[in-house]
Amino acid sequence: MVAGSKILVVEDNYLLAEVVCDFVIDCGMQPVGPASGLETGLVYARQASIDGAILDVNLDDRFCFPICAVLTERKIPFAFLTGYSQLSIVPQAYRSAPLVAKPFDPDELRGVIEGMLGGRPDGPLARATSTAKLPAYS
């Protein structure tokens, strides 16, 4: 079930983190965080009651993969939201996680979240081809 789900948002860009949190709320879910760095993200990943997570790959020049390890251990699904064009940096263990490219298309991100929470794999890392601008949230 997507409505009411708690989604951890890990994003080091404050404005984008707020946009993603607002988007999660608009989708009828509850954002947890946002966590702006690796350490804070790890605390949330270990301790928060969450149903899924949206992770920026690069958090102030540190990769989010330790967070992925914690979420995987807890069996909590996650998706990447990133500006990276080369995803060979993603360890093999996490390459099946869905990926949405920045700037994100709202319909695409909604679909990824619904698929992630519904337990349907969205397949190997398939980079989004959207060039849509970030939605305007106030």
The structural domain count equals 1
CATH superfamily: Response regulator
Strand composition percent: 15-25%
| Text of the CATH class | Alpha Beta
Please count the helical segments.
Answer: 4
Notes on the structure:
The protein has helices at residues 14-26, 38-47, 65-73, 106-117, and strands spanning 6-10, 30-35, 52-55, 58-59, 62-63, 78-82, 99-101. The chain has a single domain, classed as Rossmann fold. Strand 1, helix 1 (14-26) and strand 2 form a beta-alpha-beta unit. The chain has a five-stranded parallel β-sheet, with helices on both faces. A two-stranded antiparallel sheet has the order 4-5. Helix content is 32%, strand content 20%. It is an alpha/beta fold and 138 residues long. The protein has four helices and seven strands; from the N terminus they run E-H-E-H-E-E-E-H-E-E-H. Helix 2 (38-47) runs parallel beside helix 3. The chain is globular, with a radius of gyration of 13 Å. The model is unreliable at 120-138 (pLDDT under 50). The termini are far apart.
